[in-house]
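New here. Invent one.

***
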Amino acid sequence: MAPEPGFFDRRAWAAEALGTGLLVLAIVLAVGLSVAKGSPLADALPGPGARFLAVGVLVAPFVALLATSPLGRASGAHLNPAVTLAFWIGGRLSPRDLTGYIAAQLVGGLAGAATGRALLPRAAWESIGGTVTHPGVPAAAAFVLEAGMTALLLVVILTFSSSKRLARLTPLAIVPVLTAIIWLGSPWTGASINPARSEGPALAFGDFSDLWLYLLAPSVAGLAVGLAWRVTHTPLRALLRDT
C-alpha cells in the first residue's frame, strides 16, 4: 500500500485527493443512511450500537475497494494523513511526497464532505451534524482513544504491507479492524482516526470546536507507530520482503 522512497508523481497526488474525497463522501452518506433522523434504515435498526455497526459495515469494505481500485494502486491508497506520516517517518515516502499527499488528502476531505452536503437532504445533513466528530468523553481520554485506535489500524497496515507475501491481503485485513473501530469507537470519539475525515466535515459544516483533537491525535499516532516500526523492524526488512 505504500510507494517506494523517492516516489514522486503528481498523478498519485491527484489519485490520493480523489480517493480521500470518495472515502469522506462514503462516510457522510453511510452516516446519513444509518443514523440520520427519518432514514428508513436508521429507523429499522434497534439502537445507536446497531447504527454505528451499520456505518462500519458500509464504510470498511468501501475502503478496501478503494485500496484495490486503479485510484488506490496509483497512490498506495493512504487516504489518511496518519498513514502518510507513518510511511514517511518509516522511510517509505519522500519528504516531497509527504507534503503532496497530505495536501491532497485535506483537499479531498473537504471536497468529499461538500459533495455529501449537496447530496443529502438538508434535514438529514443537519441531524447528523455534518458528520463532524466530537468526543463523548473528556478531551484527554478522547485523545488517547483516537491515538490508540489509529495506532491499531496502522500496526495492521504495516504488518501486512511490509511482507511481500501478505501485502496483497492488506485491504482485506483492515476490513474487520476498521469495522470494529467504527462500531465500538464512535460513541466515545466519533472514531475519526483520520485528520482528513474530520477536517472536511468540520469545514463544510462550519464547526471547528474539537478539530484540533482529530488533527493531532491520529498524527501523533502515525509518527509514533512509524518511528517504532522503523526502529524495531529495519533489521528484519530484507527478511520480511522475502517472506
Summary: Residues 10-34 form the longest helix (25 residues).
